[in-house]
Amino acid sequence: MGALIEKAGGRIVTATYGTDEHRRLLRTLKGETMWPPPVWLMRQAGRFLPEFRALREKADFLTRCMTPDIATEITLQPVRRFAMDGAILFSDILVLPWAMGQSLEFVENRGPVLGAIRSEADLNRLDPKRVPEVTAPVMETLSRLRKALREPVGVAAADTVTLIGFAGAPFTVACYMVDGGGSREFAQTRLMAYQEPGLFDQLIALLTETTTDMLSAQIEAGAQAVMLFDSWAGLLPPLEFRRHVIGATRQIVSELKRRHPGVPVIGFPRLAGGMAAEYARETGVDTMALDTSADLAAVAGQVSPDLVLQGNLDPVSVLAGGQAMLKEALAIREAGRGRPHVFNLGHGVLPTTPPEHVGELIAAIRKVN
C-alpha cells in the first residue's frame, strides 16, 4: 500500500507504509505536502465505538484517563479499526487543574463540575508541584503507546502511526476553572478578565507554565507531536484574544521548541474567525487546526504556504454519512491539495456516529486520485 508524497520542490515520490521514515502524519506536521493527506479525527476514541462503550462500563471517566491499561487500549481502538495516521492520547484537558488540587467530577448528562476559582485565595490553594506525580499514569500511558505503535495494531502497520499528546490551552482551561464547569458563554471567566485583570493574569500565567511543563513531559514520555486545544478562544474580542490566546500560546510554543526542537505543535483556536491568520502568524504553531465554520481554501490564502492546516469536516456530515459526507469531505481534501494538510474534523466525532460512516470516510480520503 503506497501513497504519493509531494515535496517542497514539487518532486513526487511514492512512500511505502510500514517504515519509520514514512510515518506520513509526522512528516506532514513537519511541513511536507502529501497526497492523499494523512487523516485522523478528533475524539476518534470515544462513544461511537462499541469497543469503547464496553470499557466505559468498567470505570468512570477520570479513572479511565488515569489507568494506563485502559487509556492505552482506548487510544489504540480507532487505530486498530481504521488504521488512523494519528493516535491521540486518551485523556482530558481538565486533568491539569485536577492535578494541581482543584476538585473535579464528571457528572452524567452534565459534564465536568469543578470547585470554581473566584479569588486569590482559591488560586493560591492550587499546587503546581503536585502535577508530575499526579500525572505520572498519563506519562506511563504514552510510554506504553509509543512501544505498542512500533508493532502492527489491527489494520495499522508497524511504525506508521504518529503519537499525539495534548493539553487545553490556558484560556480554555481557565474558563472551566473559573466558571466551575461547562457553559456556552463562560460569563464568570470573561467578567474576571475585565474586572480583575491582575488575578486573571495570574491564573493564565500559572496555566501557561504548567501546560508547558506537562506537554514537555508528554514529549519525553513518547509523544511525537502535541496539540493545544483552545476550544473557547472564539469567545474573546480581538484585544483579549491577543492577550490570552495568542500571548499564552506563543509562550508555550516558544518554550517547547527550545526544549524539544523539531517536535511539531498543533494549535486549535476554535471559532477564531478573523483572528485565525494572526494566530497562525504570531504564535509559532507548526499546524493550525480549523473548526467547522472555517473555509479552508480562504484561510490557506491568508497564511504562510509553509503552515500546515488541519481539518475541517463537519462532524454532523459524518453522522449523516453517504454522499453528503463524501461530497463535503472530498471538497475539503481538494482545498488542501498542494500544501501541507492533515485531514480531520472541525470538531469531535459525535457519539451517535455509525462506525461504518467513519470507515467509509477514511477510505474515501485515502484514494489516490
TrEMBL record:
The gene is hemE. This is Uroporphyrinogen decarboxylase. It is an enzyme of class 4 (lyase). The lineage of its organism: Bacteria, Pseudomonadati, Pseudomonadota, Alphaproteobacteria, Acetobacterales. Belongs to the uroporphyrinogen decarboxylase family. CDD domains: URO-D. It catalyses: uroporphyrinogen III + 4 H(+) = coproporphyrinogen III + 4 CO2. Substrate binds at residues 43-47, 92, 176, 231, 347. InterPro entries: UROD/MetE-like_sf, Uroporphyrinogen_deCO2ase_HemE, Uroporphyrinogen_deCOase. Keywords: Cytoplasm, Decarboxylase, Lyase, Porphyrin biosynthesis. Residues 38-47, 164-180 form the Uroporphyrinogen decarboxylase (URO-D) domain. It comes from the Bacteria. Its main location: cytoplasm. Pathway: Porphyrin-containing compound metabolism; protoporphyrin-IX biosynthesis; coproporphyrinogen-III from 5-aminolevulinate: step 4/4. Its EC number is 4.1.1.37. PROSITE patterns: UROD_1, UROD_2. Catalyzes the decarboxylation of four acetate groups of uroporphyrinogen-III to yield coproporphyrinogen-III. Homodimer. SUPFAM superfamilies: UROD/MetE-like. One of its GO terms (molecular function) is uroporphyrinogen decarboxylase activity. It is found in: Cytoplasm. The record marks 92 as: Transition state stabilizer. Signal peptide: none annotated.
